[in-house]
Specification:
Blueprint lengths: L9 E4 L9 H15 L4 E6 L9 H14 L8 E2 L4 H14 L2 E4 L3 H13 L24 E4 L6 E6 L3 E6 L7 E3 L7 H11 L4 E5 L3 H14 L5 E5 L2 E2 L15 H6 L4 H10 L12 H7 L10 E2 L2 H14 L2 H14 L7 H10 L10 H7 L1 H4 L8 H6 L2 H16 L4 H14 L4 H13 L7 H22 L1
Parallel strand pairs: 1-2, 2-3, 9-10, 11-12
Antiparallel strand pairs: 4-5, 5-8, 6-7
Helix pairs in contact: 3-5, 5-6, 8-10, 16-17, 16-18, 16-19, 17-18, 18-19
Amino acid sequence: MPDADQAPVVTRFAPSPTGYLHIGGARTALFNWLYARGRGGRFLLRIEDTDRERSTPEATEAILRGLTWLGLDWDGEPISQFARRDRHAEVAHEMLRRGHAYKCFSTPEEIAEFRERARAEGRSTLFQSPWRDADPATHPDAPYAIRLRAPREGETVVEDAVQGTVRFGNDQLDDMICLRSDGTPTYMLAVVVDDHDMGVTHVIRGDDHLNNAARQMQVYQAMGWPVPVFAHIPLIHGPDGKKLSKRHGAVGLEQYQAMGYPAAGMRNYLARLGWAHGDAEFFTDEQARQWFDLKGIGRAPARLDFRKLENICGQHIAAMPDEALLAEIGAYLAASGRPPLSQSQKSDLARALYCLKDRSKTFPELLEKAHFVLGKRPFEPDEKAAQALDSVSRGILAELTPHLQNASWERNALEAAVAAVAESHGIGLGKIAQPLRAALSGRTVSPSVFDMMLVIGREETLARLKDATTR
């Protein structure tokens, strides 16, 4: 929690609604959320929709759905950057009045010609406007852009909470355009104005924005505004160490929901992807909020590892309360386009969760193992299960049936009944368990045969054995 004399922490996530929510963006949102929530602060959402040609309402909705599924709540209503364009223009003109910006009448053609000539002569292509120090009396009656009057000498220093001290020579930074000649603000100006007006204290974002920080700091300084804490986090790479892309598999957050990963497992894994708290791998949301800090973020790119993701997700499925687990399975079915469970299936699944959740890493895996309770008689065995139900195995199951008819329906008695038949044939328990599994579930992978019998009951167990032995 912040000290009484410190301003409350305010973080923000600012996606562009031009496509799906990338998993890297989801991790950035998570880091901002954890940092704010762990300090009693505010987490804000800004939709950077200034690219009117590519921004779509559908993409915005997808972003909101993805964040909601991941469990990241934000304070207040999402802010539209485009809706604030008048405020951005106001600040550009304020810098102009203060002498920290100037009118530039150079045309795009003139700028392109300058750069082409500079390349041909082996000079820097950094554009230096001839209007920077021009006498206002010489200004033409023509459209103009407003450029920041950036310092030409010295350096701009970014004290980054992740990257450390980063220095930029001012001779390598141009007088960036703040307001275009058509009156529209640039992204670089809009970000600073929005962050200032929203009271953002910590800007936590991908390190592909690190170069932007130097130029944005100059806007803060020109306006006399406090500079937020910058924390530029390394990007996520694929298992091969290359920048994450579609060739590595799922990169959109909603794809992970449709693939059946639990939200708590995704939060845990994404938090651990580039951040560490000692050797902790599995942790709760409450622990993550308490532990998360900027010092624990590494400077090297994190690598996506689906095996680790599944392992973490399996632990969260095992730890999840049954009611919450059933609700999230329902959401997964909807997200993946699968039919919902009927009320009776939900009841049956709830009864079976105790023997399903400890060994399932994803919801599809759990539901596949739940086939014995979600399916209906007669169970048609798959190819492997059919092989386990050969004539010898069916004969042994027929012999087992009367033992089960007379057994007390509790685990010890069921185990004893099966063991007695196995011993009479001089075979191990596994030799009966596999055909018994095939008869009860139609599969070769399922919970233990004794758990299945306890869940479905005596009558259903005997009926399935009859189906298997008389087919």
